[in-house]
Design goal:
- The chain is an alpha+beta fold and about 600 residues long.
- Helices cover about 15% and strands about 30% of the residues.
- The chain is built from ten helices and 30 strands.
- The strands form five sheets. Strands 8-7-11-12-13-10-9 form a seven-stranded antiparallel beta sheet. It has a six-stranded antiparallel β-barrel with strand order 1-2-3-6-5-4.
Length: about 600
């Protein structure tokens, strides 16, 4: 029940204030056909079978009610493993989609081919001129965008625009068009951030022709002249993208000859936007609020996954008392929680916290921290030892303006304050602004009774969303040259963690004593900073800045240049069938 209420509250938070109507208009869209008998006769007798099957109807529906319809032109197939058909259409479809989209988010796109094949479509990338619609179809007849020099130089005898109705069992609509000279009236160009040349045509079409191809006929060739992207019905003037401009735009969209073979590091091209998938508005807004990238086209719709998140668990899980779901069998490796001494488990559960930093409402980082006793000048104070990655920027600077939140299950959420940081060793000390109850802060400054080199160790972390403890057992190993973190003070353990374990403690398996602080580089081993190194850095400070009246944090670098880089693997979207099929890549790609 509580989980359901949380979901409802989340939906309200992400949809509140959006310009989305509650209900769809009750008036259905009446698609008006167009046709020119002379052009239809010429088109039917010409050897243009290829183009007859390159046009699709693209319609926007709410259940069975049609809200808008236009046409689309089939594009060459991409390099992904999955057989995805893509159609270019007018950005007018995006305008209508945004006007009709409701808070229930239950619109759908329908694609119809000339052979009456009907399937669902997916809205994706768009700018001010064009939009891309994808569909899972085994084969379509794409237009040729690579015109020869002779085709580019020849003067067409006829120009014919084509479109397809959404209604079943209807044939292709065609009409003759004429390129306007510079002195004639042109429609207002739909100029998006990716500026391209939009030419003008004189023609008698309807909205059904938007997105359809303009086919040129000469004495020797038939070829794609362009695609219609706008229409002024009053003046019977259409704006169309010539093939050369369309090809350049599609390359900018990374649809033609994309260089990337996966979505790792993917970002939208400049001036290009992506429609948030139908039915997934709240989910995508949740990802964005957690600091993750928006999903690339089709990935969410086809159940892709977000990789390298802070929510990924590692090792064996331990729930806090009263957790409503079972976790006893979840996790990987030995069930270290059953092997650790009871007192150690209790101390860990009362001293390991989850931290997150926020820029406004957007989370920037999440990690683990250890409650420790700070030997201040007046009295012992409880602070959190964690990684400075919590407040690092992509430029490897410290952002002192981030909001920090500390979480100790089941319900203790307090605000934290950055007090101290050391960039070279990636250490941060965070104070808590409210009292935490039932805690067991560790005294890491107390000398160890045993050497700081145990045979068996355990890496601890806390999941940032559920608050579950995570533990992975391993052994200490000598550092090796291939470690991605180049700090020479680092050691390695065979414990395997994930991003949420950054800043968490590495403890002695036998007595739970603090051995060091863990980091994560995406490998099968875990770098950690030894206890002695951490103490040597922190013992130079006699008191916290906030205790001495300072309003900002203090760097412990003492004007020493930052020599170490602490990269954290970025989250990215993955769908194996949408990755490039490497078998079709040119040799040496």
């Amino acid at each position: 029940m509580a989980h359901h209420e949380e979901r409802l509250a989340e939906k309200h938070r992400f949809t509140e204030g959006l310009p989305l109507p509650e209900n769809v208009s009750s008036t259905p869209f009446q698609q008006k056909p167009f046709n020119d008998e002379t052009s239809a006769t010429f088109f039917s007798t010409s050897d243009v079978k290829h183009y007859k099957h390159s046009v699709a109807s693209i319609a926007l529906f709410h259940r069975d009610k049609m809200l808008f319809a236009c046409s689309g032109t089939a594009l060459p197939r991409g390099r992904e493993k999955l057989r995805v058909a893509r159609f270019v259409t007018s950005a007018r479809l995006i305008t209508e989609f945004n006007k009709k989209r409701t808070k229930d988010d239950n619109l759908r796109i329908q694609v119809r081919l000339p052979d009456n094949t009907i399937t669902d479509g997916f809205l994706g990338l768009f700018d001010g001129n064009i939009a891309i619609v994808s569909a899972l179809l085994p084969y379509v007849h794409p237009v040729n965008l690579d015109l020869s020099k002779d085709e580019r130089d020849c003067k067409p005898i006829h120009l014919i625009a084509a479109g397809l109705e959404a209604k079943k069992d209807t044939s292709l609509m065609v009409t003759k068009v004429k390129v306007l000279s510079s002195g004639q009236k042109r429609p207002r160009r739909p100029r998006g951030p990716t500026l391209v040349s939009v030419n003008s045509l004189n023609c008698d079409i309807t909205e059904a022709g938007l997105g359809g191809p303009v086919i040129a006929f000469s004495t020797e060739y038939e070829f794609l002249s362009g695609v219609i992207v706008s229409y002024d019905c009053e003046n019977k003037v259409a704006g169309y993208l010539p093939t050369k401009a369309l090809r350049r735009l599609l390359k900018h969209f990374q649809i033609l000859r994309a260089k990337a073979i996966s979505f790792r590091g993917y970002s939208l091209p400049s001036g290009v936007q992506c429609v948030i998938p139908l039915g997934l508005w709240v989910s995508v807004q949740r990802f964005i609020s957690l600091g993750y990238p928006s999903p690339p086209p089709l990935v969410c719709e086809l159940n892709g996954t977000l990789v390298n998140t802070f929510e990924e668990d590692f090792g064996r899980l331990l729930a806090w008392e009263g957790y409503p779901f079972g976790v006893a069998q979840r996790g990987h490796g030995d069930n270290v929680w059953e092997e650790l001494p009871t007192e150690v488990v209790m101390n860990v559960s009362q001293s390991v916290v989850s931290l997150a930093s926020f820029d406004g409402d957007v989370r920037r980082f999440a990690c683990t921290g250890l409650l420790i006793k700070w030997p201040g000048s007046l009295e012992t104070q409880v602070v959190v030892l964690t990684s400075a990655s919590l407040v690092r920027t992509n430029e490897d600077k410290i952002n002192e303006n981030l909001t920090i939140k500390v979480f100790l299950p089941p319900e203790q959420h307090v605000e934290g304050k950055l007090e101290l940081y050391h960039q070279n060793y990636n250490i941060a000390i965070v104070s808590v602004r409210s009292r935490l109850n039932d805690i067991s802060p560790q005294d890491i400054f107390m000398p160890l009774t045993k050497p700081e080199s145990p045979e068996v160790v355990v890496a601890i972390g806390r999941n940032p969303s559920k608050g579950l403890l995570m533990a992975s057992k391993g052994r200490v190993e000598p550092p090796y040259k291939n470690c991605k973190l180049k700090c020479k003070a680092l050691k390695l353990s065979t414990c395997q963690i994930k991003k949420a374990g950054i800043g968490g403690p590495l403890i002695d398996f036998h007595n739970g004593s603090f051995i060091g602080m863990n980091f994560y580089d995406g490998s099968k081993t875990t770098p950690f900073l030894r206890r002695s190194t951490i103490i040597n850095v922190l013992k130079k400070v006699t008191d916290l800045p906030s205790n001495s009246g300072s309003t900002g944090p203090m760097s412990l670098m003492n004007n020493v240049a930052n020599k170490n880089w602490w990269p954290v693997p970025e989250a990215y979207w993955y769908h194996g069938e949408l990755d490039v099929d490497k078998s079709i890549l040119p040799w040496g790609f």
